[in-house]
Amino acid sequence: MDLCGKVAVITGGKRIGRFVARELAERGMNLVLSYRGSKDEAEQTVADVEAIGRRAAIVPCDVSKPTDCLAVFEQTLATFGRIDVLVNMASIYRSKPLDEVSVDYWTTDLDVNLRSAFLCAHAAIPHMRRGGGGRIVNFADWLVRSGRPRYTGFTPYYVAKAGVVALTESLALEVAGDNILVNAIAPGPIVPPPDMSQQEIDDVAKATPVGHWGGEAEIAKAVSLLCQTDFITGETIRVDGGRHLE
Question: What are the domain boundaries of the chain?
Answer without folding.
Answer: 7-245
